[in-house]
Amino acid sequence: MGWSLVNTYLLGGSSPKRDEGPDPYPYQFFNLALAILVALQGPLIVMSQNRQSMKDRATAETDFRVNLKNEVGIEALQREVAAFRAEAVKRLDMLERASLSSRVGREIAPKTPGGPLGAKPESATD
Fold this sequence. Notes:
The chain is mostly helical and 126 residues long. It contains 4 helices and no strands.
């Protein structure tokens, strides 16, 4: 900034008119200042983007590892639930069989000694 003031007022040879201002219409000095600003900021912006992409890559890798760990844990839980379910089905099957056998045992009449052929008809004894 100081360089521009020194160059404009002191080294310019003739002082600029107050009506025109320090940089007349084509705005060459203003364009030069903007070009320098862009030239200085460009690499900084690119470096900032590279740092952000490195951070994003690290975050994505961390997320992948966490998701992989969670997936392994979920698969282990699924196996445990499947084993529990198989054991429950096995026990229920055993209970149903026991219930069925006790019900069948109650419905079938007990056998008498000698069986149905060994019994004598009552009319024959009279």
